[in-house]
Amino acid sequence: MAREQLGICAEANLHGSYLLCNALDGQEAALRQKLSRLPQLLNRLSEHFSEAMLTAVVAISSHYWDTLYPWQRPADLQAFPEFASDHFAVSHSTADLLIQVRSDRADVNHIALQQVYQLIVSHVEIVDHLFGFRYLDGRQLTGFVDAPLNPRGQLRRKVALVDAAISPVFAGGSYLHFYRILLDQQHWLMLSAEQQAEIMGYQKVDGKVVPNSDYYENSHLACCQVAQEQGALLLQQNMPFATLQLQGALQLSFSADSQAFSRHWGQRLGLNTPGIYDRLLDFCRIDLAAAFFVPSLSYMEAAARGDFSNTASNLFE
C-alpha cells in the first residue's frame, strides 16, 4: 500500500516555510536519491521535536517531472492554467521543486530547512525562500476565516490523495497548485465591513452566509461553492505572509483529480458563467504560480532504488 507524504493531509500549523528550487543539469540520479531521503530526515526531526507537529511536502513541478522521473507521468499533469481573463493576470514560476515545511515552531522549521538545504545544495539552485504564518484563528489578512469549505476529517484524504483503484503507480500522491496571491490591503481597508462581507459572501465575525445580497453570486464563497458542486474538490493549505510593503497569502491546493483546480480557477475567473466572477480578485494579483505533483513516499523510494517490480511493466526498459 502506498504511503503518502504526511504533510498533505496534516492539520494547520502556526508557521510555514517554502523552498522553491531549480535542479542543476545532470543531477537527476543524485536528486532521486536525495529526495527519497528527505522524509526520513524530517521524520527524525519530527520525533525529536514532537511538540512542534513538524510535517513536510516534497513536490515536483509539471515541467520537471519528465526529467526527474522519465519512465511514467501522472495522468494529465499540466502547468498552472493560463486562462485569459478580463479580471485577472497571473505571473508564473519556473521552479522545478517545491519543499514545504510546517510546524508550530519557527525555529524547528529553520532547523529542518537547514538540514534539507545541506542535503540537496550541490544539486539545486534556490529560486525563492518564503515564509507563512497563522493569522489570528485561521484567518486571511482580509480578516475573514480562510477556506470555509475545506474538507474535514477523513474526507481530506479522499479529496487530496490519488486512489489506488484509479492509478496504482501514483496512489497516495496528489496534484498540487501553488501560488502567492498579493492583497491590495490599502483599498481593501477602505471598504466598510458590510461591503467586505458582500465580496466574501460571509460575515467576518461569525462566518455566516450573507443573507439576501444582490451580489452574492459574485462573492468569493459563491464562486467556490459552485466550483465544488461541479466536482472541483480541493484541500487547501493557505498561510498569510506579510512584509511592510506586501501582504497576501501562500496558497496550496491539493487534489486527487488533475483537473479539479482548473475547474475551480475557471469558475473564480468568470470563464464558466458570463458576468459571474470572484469579486475578491479585484483586490488581488498573483505574482508566483506553478503546478506540481506530490509523489508518495513509496514512489520516491522505488525510483531511488530503480525498483519498479510492482508496476504493470518494467519502466526502465
From TrEMBL:
Keywords (A to Z) from UniProt:
Iron, Metal-binding, Oxidoreductase, Peroxidase
Q: Which SUPFAM superfamilies match?
A: Dimeric alpha+beta barrel
The protein here is known as Peroxidase
Q: State the family it belongs to.
A: Belongs to the DyP-type peroxidase family.
Q: Where are the transmembrane segments?
A: none
Any Pfam family matching the protein: Dyp_perox_C
Segments forming domain Dyp-type peroxidase C-terminal: 138-297
**Family matches, as PROSITE patterns:** DYP_PEROXIDASE (PS51404)
Single Gene Ontology MF annotation? peroxidase activity
Coiled-coil region(s): none
**Signal peptide bounds:** none
Q: Domain of life of the organism in this record?
A: Bacteria
Query: Can you give the residue ranges of the Dyp-type peroxidase N-terminal domain?
Result: 5-134
Instruction: Supply the source organism's classification.
Output: Bacteria, Pseudomonadati, Pseudomonadota, Gammaproteobacteria, Alteromonadales
